[in-house]
Amino acid sequence: MEKIAIISDIHGNIPAFHAVLNDIKAREISRIFCLGDLVGKGPSSDIAVDLVQATCEKVVTGNWDAHVPQLTDSKTIKWHQNKLGKVRLDYLRGLPFSIEFYMSGKFVRLFHASPRSVHERIQPWDSYESRLSLFESSDLCEQEIEADVVGYGDIHNALIQNFNGKTLFNVGSVGNPLEIPQASYAILEGEYNSREPSSFSIQLVRVPYDIELAVKQALEEDMPSLEAYILELRTAQYRGIKK
């Protein structure tokens, strides 16, 4: 049996990322896959990219990873571009769309937001049909078959849901969780790259981290959208809006 840590949506929050990496190491998990949004929002996109390259075996693109390298008039995006530099921006441009493999006889597909786009946002409270569509394939995927297990990021809300024998999970967010103010990731356990049916499990993990250190780092960088970012870190509510 092998364990794979699935992380997503780091968003330049290094204290949260370090906490998750330490938790993964303590569990003796050596294989890490990242589902995108390494950059943006937080103050340290550059460090996040470097850490992902050093620790993650496979990485896919997120909506921020796709958007930040583009030409823009946005002062916020330009700030992040300046932090990243040309080499890291080129790395983001080259990230693939999905990760696909068999595990314990199940075909697993991982992507950032949906099998069709990094910009299509599907929430756990959206229609049954919308969530079921996440198991479909598209021209952006590696194989033209429906998945048995789908994992994604983007919405910053961790979940596990079942659909007539198919399993959907969201890993939540490492650096910008929007449920409770703790970093989140997932662990898959089973026989990696095996088409033979065998034991398989998905675990969601919450990791406390030093939020005030993350706030301090953002303040020191005098980053754009500072107040909204700090509210999200402290309250786990999107742009500080009350639930």
UniProtKB/TrEMBL annotation:
<dbReference type="InterPro" id="IPR029052">
    <property type="entry name" value="Metallo-depent_PP-like"/>
</dbReference>
<comment type="similarity">
    <text>Belongs to the metallophosphoesterase superfamily. YfcE family.</text>
</comment>
<dbReference type="InterPro" id="IPR024654">
    <property type="entry name" value="Calcineurin-like_PHP_lpxH"/>
</dbReference>
<dbReference type="GO" id="GO:0005737">
    <property type="term" value="C:cytoplasm"/>
</dbReference>
<dbReference type="Pfam" id="PF12850">
    <property type="entry name" value="Metallophos_2"/>
</dbReference>
<dbReference type="InterPro" id="IPR050126">
    <property type="entry name" value="Ap4A_hydrolase"/>
</dbReference>
<dbReference type="InterPro" id="IPR011152">
    <property type="entry name" value="Pesterase_MJ0912"/>
</dbReference>
<protein>
    <submittedName>
        <fullName>Serine/threonine protein phosphatase</fullName>
    </submittedName>
</protein>
<feature type="domain" description="Calcineurin-like phosphoesterase">
    <location>
        <begin position="3"/>
        <end position="189"/>
    </location>
</feature>
<dbReference type="GO" id="GO:0016791">
    <property type="term" value="F:phosphatase activity"/>
</dbReference>
